Amino acid sequence: VHEIVLLGLSQPRVLSLALAILLLLSYTTVLLGNLSIILTIRAEPRLAASPMYYLLGNLSLVDLCYTSVTTPQMALGLLSGHATISLGECLAQLFFLHFLGCTEIFLLTAMAYDRYVAICQPLHYTAIMSCRTCARLVAGSWMGALAHSLVQTLLATTLPYCGPNRIDHYFCDVAPLLGVACTDTSLVEILVVSNTGAISLGCFLVLLVSYGVILAALRRCSAEGRRKALSTCTAHLMVVAIFFGPCIFIYTRPFSTIPADKVVSLLATVVTPMLNPLIYTLRNTEMKGAMRQLWGRWVRAEK
């Protein structure tokens, strides 16, 4: 097999155009939303110096890259009717999909640690969450995700592919790609589930425990401090729920492809990166204020 046919992109012409327009609108929203967050944090020194916003800026960058791996290719495939991708491009897409997705998982876990220190150890927050610590957390997230993705891709690369070269999906992922392999993939499936599934479920459980500790600690805070902390933590928990849900659903069970997989995959790769900027800006007074100031300076500069 040298070419993979993506059956998810083989739709009637009218439906293909409608789906392509929706994907392009979603992608535009992701670009504008995440770029706005990154530029606002970089332009506002007070936010740039904050560990929470430093991690948020990195999360926005990952979201931007994560959805760029699949969404433009899906939209172009639907518009052109060209529903094929070479095996090399398929494996490259798989690599970056897992690399950036795993980076987001680790960054969300790092953000939970940041909130835990800020609420449970406020007097030591500046010392614990120093610039060096934040840089190490971000670098560790990227390096850990790189190791994970290399393992996934190497497992997929070593398999012989002899068809049929059709996968019922919108993009290349491990589960649908294993259906093209002409050998027993049971061991690979176990390794993938124990790798990706363990990371997703493990980090999710760590997040639940950390937020349980945070909620218990909030009882000692003042009413104003409790309201502000709950607002930040609620936004983070919403992002965690809509990102980890699809990951756990897809990667913690045996690889039997079902129709729901395609919908859940689209939720993770398109909808979640689009919702993250809305959740973090609409519920964040500091971010909204900084964006208004940045917009006001830009308007005055144009005049």
TrEMBL record:
Leader sequence segment: none
Membrane topology summary: Multi-pass membrane protein
TM regions (residue ranges): 15-41, 53-71, 91-113, 134-151, 197-218, 230-251, 263-282
Entry annotated with the keyword Cell membrane: yes
Keywords: Cell membrane, G-protein coupled receptor, Membrane, Olfaction, Receptor, Sensory transduction, Transducer, Transmembrane, Transmembrane helix
Domain annotation G-protein coupled receptors family 1 profile: ranges: 33-280
Chief localisation class: membrane
InterPro entries, A to Z: GPCR_Rhodpsn (IPR000276), GPCR_Rhodpsn_7TM (IPR017452), Olfact_rcpt (IPR000725), Olfactory_Receptors (IPR050427)
Family membership: Belongs to the G-protein coupled receptor 1 family.
This protein's name: Olfactory receptor
Organism the protein comes from: Terrapene triunguis (Three-toed box turtle)
Lineage: Eukaryota, Metazoa, Chordata, Craniata, Vertebrata
Gene that specifies this protein: LOC112114896
